[in-house]
Amino acid sequence: MEACSPQWQERLSAWFDGEVQAHERREVEDHLARCPGCSREASRYSALRRALKAEGAEEIDVPPALTARVARLAPPTSPRRRAWGRLAAALAAVGLVWASWPGGMDEALAMDLERNHLKAFSRRSPCEFESSDPAEVKAWVEREVGYAVEVPVVPGATLLGARRCRLHGRLSASLLYRHEGGKAMTLFLPLQGSDVARAAARFAGDGPRCTRGPVGERICVAPRGEAWASLAVSELEPAVLLAALARLSP
């Protein structure tokens, strides 16, 4: 957190979301002119907007172990085609499709996912409902969001609780976890058959698929049937996100 205080962190989050009055917006802008830390934090949020205007896909970060593994899988061709062939073959071998952002994912959905994840974990208390008990979290989501979800126990991670969020303008459920080492992870569980669930399922296709969001967080999607998918957002490696999604029933 770059903001000068937790209180200003929350004010900046509300300012970014357009949830402040005109006089409050002026107060925030005056503060930004004087506070380097809050100014840096505001720039981090603003990167979300700038990224949507950027053109072109970003480079794929391929782990060295994966590069070594796929070197044995592709026939020799030109260097450029050989590199991409190796990557594609390796990802297919482990059942994962990787795409650089936007990589076929709906741009508004990618921004909504990353924005909700970063906004939650920029707060002192990221959850609306705090509990490490899956049954309690499940009951809260069903009561406050309006539909039932699974709340998985994720090995190596602590369940923090849940939040309501808006994806494509529709109320959706999100579960928040803190992984070993302190890294944050959000599981997004849209209502089956909703526009968000359909868009995620189209992106995933026949199997798990990962990409990067506008400011670099990883987004992984796991299909769960026709017009349904669950999503995970974190800076953690794709394998960790996919393992968390795999705790949900297909």
Account of the 3D structure:
A hairpin with a 2-residue loop joins strand 3 and strand 4. About 17% of the residues have low confidence. The two termini are 36 Å apart. The protein folds into 3 domains: 48 residues, no CATH class; 30 residues, no CATH class; 146 residues, Protein Transport Mog1p, Chain A. Strands 1-6-7-8-5-4-3-2 form an 8-stranded mixed β-sheet, with helices on both faces. The protein has 9 helices and 8 strands. The longest helix has 18 residues. By secondary structure, it is α+β, with helices and mostly antiparallel strands.
Helix content: 40-55%
CATH architecture designation of the largest domain = 3-Layer(aba) Sandwich
**C-alpha termini separation:** 36 Å
Mean pLDDT: 78
Largest beta-sheet details = 8 strands, mixed
Number of helices: 9
CATH topology of the largest domain: Protein Transport Mog1p, Chain A
Count the domains.
Answer: 3
According to CATH, what is the class of the largest domain? Alpha Beta
Radius of gyration: 19 Å
Give the amount of beta strand, in percent.
15-25%
Structural class: alpha+beta
Spatial ordering of strands, largest sheet: 1-6-7-8-5-4-3-2
Secondary-structure element sequence?
Answer: HHHHHEHEHEEEHEEEH
Report the strand count.
8
What is the overall shape?
globular
| Poorly predicted parts | 52-63, 65-95
